[in-house]
Amino acid sequence: MVSRKYGRILLKLSGEALMGDSEYGIDPETIRTIAKQLKTVIESGVQVAVVVGGGNIWRGEEAAGQGMDRVTADYAGMLATIINALALQDGLERQGVITRSQSAITVQAVAEPYTRRRAIRHLEKGRVVIFAAGTGNPYMTTDTAAALRAIEINAEILLMAKNRVDGVYEADPLTHPEAKKYSRLSYLDALKMRLEVMDSTALSLCMDNSLPIIVFDLQAPKSIERVVSGEPIGTLVHD
């Protein structure tokens, strides 16, 4: 069992983070690893909510750039996040973790409709809640959904899990190996320098509501457990 620094967290998983070493789709081993870590975190007494992206399956902005109607493309992206939510839910349930998926668009055959009070009640009962379909609105990213849901459920921290990037850098570390990594950043500095923490709408929402953010590498060993225990990994963005 891990020690815990936080009582309630929201974990944002990008679609890319679910691909593992694959070029597309969902990697079963990555799902298992995430599920095992979340089980350990839950057993330590932490209440866990998750927002999933859909970029491993569909990117609405890219589809719109190729001529598709943007609103239609964004709704297709919401459906991709529901696929990821169901895959993660299955992985968690295989580990014996009671899980509920809630969707911002109506798909009652596979997920509950999003209700703030019900979500909080699930968390209080020790269930993992997965929020799918973003905010339910086109033009809004799943980063914005993560910030919004974290604030709505009174999460203490927003954990941004990245794929093979262990924090926030002054430039893309994959193409600029010499780029400086920040251990701490203010919201304003992240906005002014246009650093790729999350989109500006989401970051502004966190800043306005004093919601701290930790950006970390999901692929690092036991990364979720370590960040929940308060180990200083990744980059902390706060006041």
What would you note in describing this structure?
It contains eight helices and eleven strands. With 239 residues, the protein is of the alpha/beta class. It has a single domain (8-238), classed as Carbamate kinase, CATH 3.40.1160. The strands form two sheets. The chain has a nine-stranded mixed β-sheet with strand order 4-3-5-2-1-6-10-11-9, sandwiched between helices. The longest helix has 25 residues, at 70-94. The two termini are 31 Å apart.
> In which order are the strands of the major sheet placed?
4-3-5-2-1-6-10-11-9
The CATH topology name reads: Carbamate kinase
Shape: globular
H and E order: EHEHHEEHEHEEEEHHEHE
Structural class label = alpha/beta
> If you average the pLDDT, what whole number results?
93
Number of helices: 8
Number of domains: 1
Strand content: 15-25%
Largest sheet properties: 9 strands, mixed
Unreliable sequence segments? none
Q: What is the β-strand count?
A: 11
Please write the CATH class name: Alpha Beta
Percent range of helical residues: 25-40%
Termini distance? 31 Å
